[in-house]
Design brief:
- This protein folds into 2 domains: about 160 residues, Jelly Rolls (Sandwich); about 170 residues, Jelly Rolls (Sandwich).
- The chain is built from 2 helices and 26 strands.
- The strands form 5 sheets. Strands 14-15-16-19-25-21-22 form a 7-stranded antiparallel beta sheet. Strands 1, 3, 4, 8, 11 and 13 form a 6-stranded antiparallel beta sheet that branches. It has a 6-stranded antiparallel beta sheet with strand order 17-18-26-20-24-23, with no helix packed on it.
- The relative contact order is 0.13.
- The N terminus is likely disordered.
């Protein structure tokens, strides 16, 4: 009894001190508690793909190698390249309660070849289960090519606002190659709440460091599930955006309708249908996302077979919103012959306006053949 009585007295003293002491007690706002950032993905790729699924469309798959997720079409033992296309696709991420989130990973990228190799970071909130039929948003930006196998660069990207508040966000790492292959190794991938100072997302002022966009770029950088055929426009309808072909080039998304790959008989490159009176047969292409600065000029090279007696007829429009159709910009072409083709080079001067969008529209008679297009910014 004495022991119990002494314990009761001691507890009473503790409670009395807590109630009467001048020392402030810890205070929390009701309902707040301790806050912490949610982590949605956290994969080292040392021994497995974790929450990522390896989907191989053709050729070589992603592999765990050198404690990284590695993708390449090149085989060291045979010294041969296999044309490949493969994706690492994350499990769905619930961002329904997120106000800000970012993706980050370390990587080594080697042997990039324009028009022959692709390495992309993609995101969607409507994954079909098949990466080739899914409409992706390309958040790659610019990946830095390395010069050795020991120095890792860091990719950082804030998740675009349109995916915040969504419950089925999926990330994919994609690589592909044709006759030559790049190699990429990725480790320590995380996706979590918060923001970062972005890297690897700079839009160059001119596409591919001075190179122009060509049919190879347009074919190899396809997004969405619409294919580009040879010498036929398929089901493309100028009035139905879901049928338009889409692609990316240096971080800019483009779309086009009534376009296809030329078979080379009447001209080289991208073939675009034309008609002066029937709007349903007037092909076009335009940049869907804005350039980082206003357009200074556009250099367009069109191709016509030397056997043809017709020259190109079309319009180029500039504007402040995607797919402009009002402000036509004129240019006088320079003409020269190159093999079996005549080339018409147009330089459109847009420097007098504040235009971040353009449309190439064939609202004239006859098809045109786009060999290359180069956009220069102010």
């Amino acid at each position: 009894m004495k022991t119990i009585f002494k314990l009761a007295i001691a507890l009473l003293a503790v409670f009395s001190f807590a109630a009467c002491s001048d020392v402030p007690m810890p205070y929390e706002e009701p309902g707040t508690g301790n806050t912490s950032e949610d982590t949605y993905l956290d994969e080292t790729f040392e021994t497995s793909f974790g929450k990522f699924t390896n989907v191989t469309v053709k050729g070589n798959a992603w592999a765990i190698d050198y404690k990284t997720a590695k993708a390449t079409g090149y085989d060291n033992s045979s010294q041969k390249t296999t044309a490949s296309e493969a994706y690492l696709v994350s499990s769905p991420v619930d961002l329904s309660k997120s106000n800000a989130a970012y993706l980050q990973f370390e990587y080594i990228l080697r042997y990039v070849r324009a028009g022959q190799t692709e390495n992309k970071v993609l995101i969607t909130d409507n994954y079909t289960g098949n990466p080739t039929t899914t409409t992706w948003t390309d958040i790659t930006g610019t990946l830095t090519e390395g010069s050795d196998w020991t120095t890792f660069a860091t990719y950082k990207k804030n998740i675009p606002a349109e995916f915040l508040g969504k419950s089925n966000v999926v990330i994919a790492l994609m690589y592909s190659c044709t006759t030559t292959s790049s190699t990429i190794e990725i480790k320590n991938l995380i996706m979590k709440d918060g923001t970062v100072e972005e890297s690897g997302t700079t839009t160059p002022e001119t596409p591919t460091s001075g190179d122009a966009m060509t049919i190879d770029n347009i074919k190899s950088n396809k997004t969405g599930n619409i294919s580009l055929d040879t010498n036929k426009y398929g089901s493309q309808s100028v009035s139905d955006e879901s049928t338009w072909y889409s692609w990316t080039f240096d971080g800019i998304t483009y779309q086009g309708a009534k376009i296809c790959i030329s078979d080379g008989k009447n001209g080289e490159g991208l073939q675009m249908q034309g008609n002066a009176t029937d709007a349903s047969k007037q092909g076009f292409l335009f940049n869907k996302t804005a350039f980082s600065k206003s357009i200074k000029s556009i250099t367009l090279v069109l191709s016509v077979a030397t056997s043809s007696k017709y020259g190109p007829e079309f319009n180029l429009y500039a504007g402040t919103e995607a797919h402009p159709k009002a402000k036509a910009i004129s240019a006088t072409p320079e003409q020269k012959e190159s093999g079996n083709y005549k080339e018409y080079t147009y330089t459109f001067d847009l420097s007098s306006g504040d235009y971040k969008y353009f449309t190439l529209a064939n609202d004239k008679v006859g098809a045109i053949y786009v060999k290359s297009m180069k956009v220069t910014l102010k």
